[in-house]
Amino acid sequence: MDKEKEEVILVVMRKANQPSYFDDDLTGTCSKCEQEVIYRPHNPKGAIKVCFDCATKGDLLKKYKIGITDRTASELRDYFLSSLAKGKN
Ligand SMILES: [Zn+2]
Q1: CA of 85 to the centre of ligand 1 (A)
Q2: CA distances (Å), origin 12, targets 16, 31, 61, 75
């Protein structure tokens, strides 16, 4: 595997038939299975987008890093804290 390939980031997304957590979620296509998926609008540039199922098959996770932006991490943190406060978990 060449150096450039190691830098490519994998963004794991949910399938579009699952509930969306955020009003501004976008829909797209998994680059492996071409299933419709949901993702956050501000992914790392150049990231490969795949669904959870594809991420856990084969050796994708051995080849690529999972990328998440600081903004998405912050949004997820707020969502989880809000869910805990509401007693949904
Ligand atoms: Zn997929």
Answers
A1: 33
A2: 13, 11, 10, 16
Whether the CB-CB separation of 27 and 37 falls below 8 Å is answered with yes
CA of 87 to the centre of ligand 1 (A): 31
Mind listing the pLDDT tens digit for each residue in 34-86?
999 888 888 777 788 888 889 888 888 888 888 888 888 899 899 999 989 99
pTM of the model: 0.71
Domain that holds residue 56: 3-85
Cα–Cα distance list, 65 to 23, 62, 69, 84 (Å): 27, 8, 13, 29
* Residue 82 pLDDT: 93
| CA 89 / ligand 1 centre spacing (Å) | 26
- Count of the separate structural domains present in the chain: 1
